[in-house]
Amino acid sequence: MAQADFYILPAADEESRYRFLGKLATRAIGAGHQLYVLTDSRQQAEIISERLWHAGPETFLPSHLANTQTARQAPICLGWDSAHFPQKPDLLVNLSSHYPTQTKQFKRITEIVIQQDNILEQTRQRYKSYQQDGIKPNMHDMRNRS
């Protein structure tokens, strides 16, 4: 059964979300996971890919866009359409504004939540959707951590 983790960040800016994704991806890749990052558009996927390539001086986070030839060679795949979902799902990071229909295919699902009204409302709806699909959401409140 899939596990859904919600990371509630204290910041409201997208850059905080991308920085947290870099930290999460570093740990996940180190543990041998393949990540699929779901976005709303190709443009958003390209922005995230650029951020991951420049995540930090000691970090190497190779990524690719879902419809490119390098699709099977990098541990992080970025897609924006359900047709892009991987053949062997492992870890889904949902940075899109909607609830992905293929959630049960993944072992783990991660939602990175920032303090924007529209994102908070979407998160509440997705939380309910996970519950309705029999996936127990776990909350990780990062607002009180140093």
Could you explain the architecture of this structure?
This protein has helices at residues 14-30, 42-53, 117-132; strands spanning 3-8, 35-38, 63-65, 76-79, 91-94, 108-113, 137-141. By secondary structure, the chain is of the alpha/beta class. The protein has a 7-stranded parallel sheet with strand order 3-4-2-5-6-1-7, sandwiched between helices. The mean pLDDT is 89.
Main traits of this protein?
single chain, 146 residues, alpha/beta, seven-stranded parallel sheet, 3 helices, 7 strands, 22% strand, globular
Ordered list of secondary-structure elements with their pairings:
Elements (H helix, E strand, L loop, with lengths): L2 E6 L5 H17 L4 E4 L3 H12 L9 E3 L10 E4 L11 E4 L13 E6 L3 H16 L4 E5 L5
Parallel strand pairs: 1-6, 1-7, 2-4, 2-5, 3-4, 5-6
Give me a quick take on this structure.
With 146 residues, the chain is an alpha/beta fold. The protein has helices at 14-30, 42-53, 117-132, and strands at 3-8, 35-38, 63-65, 76-79, 91-94, 108-113, 137-141.
Order of H and E elements: EHEHEEEEHE
The largest β sheet comes out as:
7 strands, parallel
Question: On the 0-100 scale, what is the average pLDDT?
Answer: 89
Strand content: 15-25%
Low-pLDDT parts are none
Number of strands: 7
Query: What is the helix tally?
Result: 3
Radius of gyration: 14 Å
| Percent in helix | 25-40%
Question: What's the overall geometry?
Answer: globular
SSE-based structural type? alpha/beta
- State the end-to-end distance: 32 Å
User: Order of strands in the sheet with the most strands?
Assistant: 3-4-2-5-6-1-7
